[in-house]
Every structure is written in structure tokens, then in C-alpha cells.
Model the fold of this input.
Amino acid sequence: MKYPEILPIEDVLARLDDFDTIIDARSPSEYALDHLPNAINCPVLDDQQRITVGTMYKQVGAFEAKKVGAAMVSKNIGYHIETLWLDKPREWKPLIYCWRGGNRSGSMATVLAKIGWPVVQLDGGYKAFRGAINTQLEQTPELDFRVICGTTGSGQNPFARYAGSDRRPGAGPGTVGGASRLGAGQYPLPAAAFAEKPSRPLSGTVCAATIRACRCLSKPRVARLGACACRDALMERMRAFAVHLDAGSARRPRQAADRGLPAFRLQRPCPECTARVPGVQLHGRERIERWQSMANAGEMPALVDELLVDHYDPAYLKSIHRNFVQFDKATELALPRYFA
Done:
């Protein structure tokens, strides 16, 4: 076999777990936007060097820019070899890619192959990976989702944690309403996945990671995973099957106070409690004053019960029926007593 071996994205994705190291040769800013799963960033040109070479290419000429760029690339590759790979055995098999699988990854792949390592270079680079991810996300995933639905205080969070844990026989992985538990194990997500506004490419990678990790128990309120938007095919699949969770009217106020209304856990007067309820001003002066009187008197269980029935439930049920057209046929599941 002649190295570096150049493989298309289809072959690389099928063998992704076979590589000892996945090396992203792009600049740090490109890497931060998104990258292949488990890839490490070993730039052959950093951000400033890339600007310098690009500016010279336009203002001076390609030949002069390539000379300066080649000197930078050589120094950077030498630094990576000296600091990261001197201890690697002959059998060490890295995968290298850049933006389009051109000069940057080719330079590093050539040097490592000349040393004697069985190097693989991704043909088409990150751009090919992005195209493959977009294609994958447009397809309906063959996963058996069961979406937990319920109003405030129905116990969705404790139930989802239990169903996705090892405390029950045959337990499988679960997600609890966000990206915090996605991508565990063989397909970890970059830290930027948990940012308030992740990049659009990273959003797609997060969804692909979720599908690959086979997270089959979910609790979506909107078409997002954490801060990352889901594709239509995935959401349609998830919304086809629903489980209606019911904690029972006697336990709902306690569940709601523990999870979403911490101020109402206090069994004493709380003059400011009602003002903390989002959207409470929509109910009119008379009702708000009555609720505030209950808060002032410390009648918290009765107040929470009224807030659930008259304030939270209508909004949640409207959203559930809008997003889950088959909700009336959903499987009903009573929350076990030990969750209360």
C-alpha cells in the first residue's frame, strides 16, 4: 500500500473508529466552528499565518506566498511531530483532513507518510464531511423513539433519568431535554456544542452524534437539542410516538415546586412569589390579587395547584397538541409512587 492513502468520505465514515488519531490540519478558528468527531487540532497554519499568506497571495503573487507559507507549514508540522508524535509506533494510523483535502492536509500527510506511518488523507476534507452529515440528517433515522409528554409537575425529568440509567434491568441510554447528555462514549461532542449559539455546522454535527449514539428516550419541547436545531426528518420521527406521563393530581404540586417553582417550596408567606411566575400578568387584576393573597398567607400547596391548572397547563397542552398530532392516542403512563 502506498501512503498517504486518499479515501473518500464514505470509506472514512465507515472506518472512523479504526484510526488511532484524527487530525484537523485547519486553523484553530475553523476547528472551533466544527470538526470531525474526536479530532484534535494540529494546524499547519494558525489564524494569523493564514491571513498573512492569503494577503500576500492576493497582493504580491502566488509564488511568493507559497514560499512564505511553505516555511510556516514546515515549522508547524515539525513542532507537532516533536511535541505530539515522537513516541508513536510504526503502526500508528492517523487520519488527516483540512477544508477541502488540499494543500494543508496534503503537506502534513506527505511528511508523516515519509516517516513511515500508514497515513490516510480525507479526500474532499471537512467540506465532504459536512455534505455527508447534511445528507444523513435529511434521511429518516431508523430509531424507536418514545417521547415523554406531560404538563408541569408530571415528573418527566426524574422518570427520564431513571429510564436512562442502569438502575432498571435492560436500561438503555436516554436524553433529558437537552444536549448535556448527548454524545457520551465513542462520539463526544465538542465543548462549543453547549454554547448559547453554536455554529450552524456544529448544530448538524450534534444531531448526527445524537442519532449515531442511539438516544431513543427523549423529552423535546421544541425542535432543538440543547441549543442546536434538529432537522425535520428527525423531529417527524420523534413526534410520531408519544408517552403521556401523569404524576397524579395529588403529587403534581410537589413535583412542580421541586423542579420548576422552587420559590413555592417555602411553607411560609412569600409576598414576591406570584410576581416571579412568567406571564402571570395575562390573568387580570382580580385573579392575580387573589393568588398574591394566597402567597402572603403561605397557602402554597393550594396556590401551586391553581397555578398548574389555570396558568401552566393551558400553555403546555396547547404546545403538546400542536407538536404531537397523535397525542390523543398516546400511551398513558402513571408515574410510580417512588418518584414523588
About this structure: The first helix runs from residue 9 to 14. The two ends are 63 Å apart (CA to CA).
